Amino acid sequence: MNEPRNIPPLISLRAFETYSRHGLVREAAEELSISHTVVSRHIQNLEYFLKVKLVRKSGRNLVLTREGERYAEQIRRAFGIIASASGGLRRGTESALHISCMPGLATRRILGMLSEIERTIQVGNLTLQPQLLGAEMLKGGADVELTYSETVPAIPGLSAEIFASPRIIPVASPELLASAGGVRTLSDLTRLPLIHEKTSRQWEDWLTKAGMVEIPELRGVKLWQGNLSIEGARLGQGVALVSTLIARPSLEQGEIVEVLPSNVRLGDYYMLASDQTWKRAEVQKLRDWLRAVFAGE
């Protein structure tokens, strides 16, 4: 007869895993639709079962202990395997792939190539979700995620691979550039109205890498999202920093122009998936297709 598995209560594991992602008991309680005291009790029950301290007090909050951090990473990976297996059963015998993707990449590049992706990776049911899910992928929200980051994404339970490393270029409408009377230097560029996302940090980093020593105060509207930034540039609202991968269709159509030649790279485009999902043939085909299509960006 098989020996019973020494597994903690799943409800306690779920509470601990949710807390470990948010870092706050209150936010874990909101996700699970239970009270914060119940979340705390589940974590205490898990510690009692394991005979190990997983969290400790730090001021008014709880933080993971070293053992808690290691255990949380393993539990997230285990829940990812469960979500992947459950998703496979829900899909039935028909092959399927669910892609979550940053909105700008989804609308400006991936959307127009969906039929080519379907033929290449040979799936019968392809879903494109223009929204980044991050760790929520592990709950069965998507199979893979396509995102841009200046550092390697560090999401426990997910592995990341680069599929493109494009230049980041300043773009504007032809009309705005013509009215500026020519832009020949970085100083000329900073005198134009600039479009920022959440802060001016990206512009500061770009100007530094482009060779500017003293960065002046940078003003301009904040549009919070790269997709809005390129639209703002197209509509003549200022100069936006965008990747050549996103900007290419609008550049080729003459809707925007590169304001000043440069060779600055700030980050990379990544494909994320759980270790289990990476083993799927269609996921590997998608990665190879992305690398081939965007290799010259």
TrEMBL record:
Residues in domain HTH lysR-type? Answer: 8-65
Q: Mind listing the UniProt keywords for this protein, alphabetically?
A: DNA-binding, Transcription, Transcription regulation
What's the domain of life for this entry?
Answer: Bacteria
The record ties this protein, via Pfam families, to: HTH_1 (PF00126), LysR_substrate (PF03466)
An example Gene Ontology molecular-function term: sequence-specific DNA binding
Residues crossing the lipid bilayer are none
GO BP annotation list: DNA-templated transcription
Kindly give the PANTHER family that the UniProt entry links to this protein: HTH-TYPE TRANSCRIPTIONAL REGULATOR, HTH-TYPE TRANSCRIPTIONAL REGULATOR TRPI
Family of the protein in this entry: Belongs to the LysR transcriptional regulatory family.
Protein name per Swiss-Prot or TrEMBL: Glycine cleavage system transcriptional activator
UniProt organism field: Pseudogemmobacter humi
